[in-house]
User: What shape does this take?
Amino acid sequence: MSKNTLYDKLWDSHQVRETDEGASVLYIDRHLVHEVTSPQAFEGLRMAGRKPWRADSVLATPDHNVPTTDRSRGIEETVARIQVETLDNNCDEFGLTEYKMDDPRQGIVHVVGPESGATLPGMTVVCGDSHTSTHGALGALSFGIGTSEVEHVLATQCLIQKKSKNMLIQVGGRLRDGVSAKDMALAIIGEIGTAGGTGYAIEFGGEAVRALSVEGRMTLCNMTIEAGARVGMVAVDDKTIEYVRGRIYAPKPEQWEQAKAAWADLHSDEGAEFDRVVTIDGAAIEPQVTWGTSPEMVLPVGGTVPRPEDEADSVKRGNIERALVYMGLEGGQAITDIKLDKVFIGSCTNSRIEDLRDAAALINGRQVAESINQALVVPGSGLVKRQAEAEGLDQVFTEAGFEWREPGCSMCLAMNADRLGDGEHCASTSNRNFEGRQGQGGRTHLVSPAMAAAAAIAGHFVDVAQYMQTPDNKEEV
Amino acid sequence: MDAFTTLDGLVVPLDRANVDTDAIIPKQFLKSVKRSGFGPNLFDEWRYLDVGEPDQDGVPLGYSSGRPLNADFVLNQPRYNGAQILIARDNFGCGSSREHAVWALLDYGIRVVIAPSFADIFYNNCFKNGVLPFALSGDEVDRLFNEIEASEGYRLKVDLAAQHVTLPSGETMRFEIDNFRKACLLQGLDEIGLSLQHADAVHDYETKRKQDAPWLFAS
Ligand code: SF4
Assistant: This one.
């Protein structure tokens, strides 16, 4: 018998046929939709007189534009409101399920999908959003698409795709205390670069990955796109199956055993061949902080910002120089000396309940530093928010000086009112530190939830270990 | 979609690696529900000195006349006025999947993008809109950057059917492209229409899947 990778298996089980040109007609099980990348697709459908092929495969929710403050008066900004209303109208017109802005299940589409069981092991999942790689944490084949492809999937339930190459990233060993899936993701990107995964589907494996919770695996797969790969995956194991059990769209009890049996095969066969294998020592990963304007510009918290003069390659040197100017940093400066203005805990990378628990545990009664202008916690979904409130986490945050908000993308991309001012430095649990990403002139440093919480308390970056060693040493309660 | 066959166009050099789609079209312009009108805001944060906002008081999205230009930014240099070919460094189009990035390039007038490498989603999105992206080697791109810099009015002739680009010297550089994409682009085909030709096979697939994995059809 041939030995297949997880990616091969997922691909083969969804290939309807091959085209004459050697591409695959790939069947799509789940189509997630949000307000920013779908209006033109629905418009295209209407203009061509087409209807969704399978309305029940779609789950929509607005997330990018929604306000995270009081929503009782709706969205005040006209263009944003029109976009959200357009999604509402399109879903109503075509009979698609949507968790609207006032629905308790509304949230960031990549949090809502797994949480509701709308994304399941063995599925093909697409969304007009590059972070669709997130759902691969469940052993699904999931990837981001453009708006034309959104229309294509709506109309045909399929995509014409060329298969990518297989890459395995093995993270061995055990992560040190205080080092999270986010640090693992950033360390991997630092290692292979933001184009390292281009053309590949990446499977994450190894002891440190197996030891991650399913939510941690989502954080890891989420940032696959920052490593250049559209697809990130983790094999199914008992944790995956336990995670899925009982969710809204999970298999019904009478289908459960059949589903479990099918999912048991969702791993790469022993001896399956990968086009590229990268091995990383998990035990050596330290808490990570990005210093520049690309996720690969990342260092351990104990590091110092690179000096351009140490870089021999002229293109790379130019990139470092440009990034230093934009970030307002000096070559040789210690990461821990970077002063912060804002802190953002949220985004599809790190806004799930475990992320909020991590951050809250670190705070442990401490206060946000005086020098921080604003510290935001934005839960990934209404259900996450409700759960956090049931656990009293909102109290921990607000008592420390954080603002506790309604779910959405928020300051991850600053399409709504939550954004950085010109020149402000932000410790952010999101996934992109591009120029202007969190507001024009804003300076983003990507970190884990615990690192963001620690930075909020200190006013600058610190190793989380510093706060973890003295859990009882509360300054005030 | 407009077909693409050949193009003889002025080239504008954007000497940066990792040009991301946030830079190509910043998020505040993604609130439009249309496909057109993004051109004036292409590279907005680099092109203008002020902060670009989609106007909320009735001025159409993408309106930008009268804004202060950043004279240093390459697109604002008069010698590159009317460019239809953009050349840049590695990993062009990385980041968000927003197809608005391609719509903005197209709306501005760009039909060809050349770089040593592209991000996958951006690359894919180009073909849906009649924009041709192709990779040349790092050395070839280097050479083109030098030649463009050295001679004002530098043009390239791109021939998709022949898969090559002709330099002013008459030399050619070959590029690779997948056959399906090439055929669609050459003829400006409606891919959805093409896909619907497989409808029977899709129905058969669904029938089988409903037995093997009924939970996928539950809701
Ligand atoms: S949280 Fe950020 S990265 Fe995730 S979907 Fe929203 S905008 Fe995109």
Summary: The CA atoms of residues 19 and 92 of chain B lie 5 Å apart.
